[in-house]
Design brief:
Shape: globular
Strand order of the largest sheet: 9-8-12-13-14-15
CATH class of the largest domain: Alpha Beta
Bound molecules: ribose-5-phosphate
Number of strands: 15
Largest sheet: 6 strands, parallel
Strand content: 15-25%
CATH topology of the largest domain: Rossmann fold
Order of helices and strands: EHEEHEHEHEEEHEEEEHEHEEH
Distance between the termini: 12 Å
Length: 285
């Protein structure tokens, strides 16, 4: 049985269809003090062997909701709980960057580990984050699918990583698209919203560019990278990512920078979620 967190309902439905498994409906309540209570009556009503909890942890509430869904499955006596975290929130806090900081990704992984027999997550910021989980955790790669919604008529395209960490992603998307070259910029992050891009000498004049990253959060990285391109006679510019978090004014920043289209997957459900990671997840289940 597929059990969906509220932030992952479309993906959970797609996964249920792929696996031909029933899709449970969760009930929600909130106490006067703001605490959440999620109930999944069908887990108790049916004799369920395996519960697959699908929940992107896009907010603190979503984290709590995931823990409650896992616990509801355990309480119902299911034999196996599999936890699918399409987007792992706090995944970018995978080390203590200054003395006294927590390793937040490890803290949330430990909490999630207590309620599950297995974990799947999609393209985490660093794959090593899987080691923070107690049960087996698998990083599912969905980057190849990012090529699917791209315009078919891109002119001599460059698949550009806005920082060195995204080079492999850019190469994967280029390979799946079947044409073009790859390049990358160097990025220095000054704060949560301020980044500085050091461009390479890539020639983008009259060429279309696809900027590829794992996450678009505030849009600072992408808009700075696209800003550099606009001085160089670039053709069309589109951006693509696995996780379209798109917080605050990210979409506006990208539009102002001259981006023609934003594409992402359904690990985070947004209007830009042009491709589903359900088939990639289903193969692992
Ligand atoms: C960081 O290295 C990631 O790969 C992304 O570049 C980053 O998370 C994007 O964040 P933002 O959109 O806030 O610049």
């Amino acid at each position: 049985m597929i059990v969906s967190g509220s932030a992952s309902q479309s993906l959970a439905a797609a996964l249920a269809a792929e696996l031909e498994e029933p899709l449970a409906v969760a009930d929600y309540d909130r106490f006067p003090d703001g605490e959440l209570l999620v109930t999944v009556p069908e887990l108790a009503d049916r004799d369920v062997d395996r519960a697959i909890v699908v929940a992107s942890t896009v907010s603190s509430d979503a984290h709590l909701e995931l823990l409650q869904l896992q616990d509801a499955a355990r309480e119902a006596g299911v034999d196996e709980v599999v936890t699918v975290i399409p987007y792992l929130g706090y995944g970018r806090q995978d080390e203590a960057f200054e003395a006294g900081q927590p390793i937040s990704a490890r803290a949330v992984a430990r909490a999630i580990s207590t309620g599950t027999d297995r974990v799947l997550t999609v393209t985490p910021h660093e794959e090593s984050v899987c080691e923070f989980f107690e049960p087996t955790a698998t990083a599912v790669d969905a980057a190849g699918r990012l090529a699917e919604p791209l315009p078919a008529d891109l002119a001599d395209p460059v698949f550009l990583a806005p920082d060195a960490g995204a080079i492999e992603l850019a190469e994967t998307v280029r390979d799946a698209y079947g044409a073009g070259t790859t390049d990358y910029f160097e990025k220095t992050r000054h704060s949560g919203t301020e980044v500085e891009i050091s461009p390479s000498d890539v020639d983008v004049a009259d060429r279309d560019v696809v900027v590829v990253d794992d996450i678009i959060a505030t849009g600072s990285t992408m808009s700075e990278a696209v800003g550099v391109l606009s001085d160089r006679g670039v053709g069309r510019v589109v951006v693509t990512c696995v996780h379209p978090l798109l917080v605050r004014n990210a979409a506006t920043k990208l539009a102002r920078a001259g981006v023609e289209a934003i594409y992402g997957t359904d690990t985070i459900e947004r209007p830009t979620s042009a491709v589903s990671v359900a088939p990639a997840l289903a193969r692992e289940l």
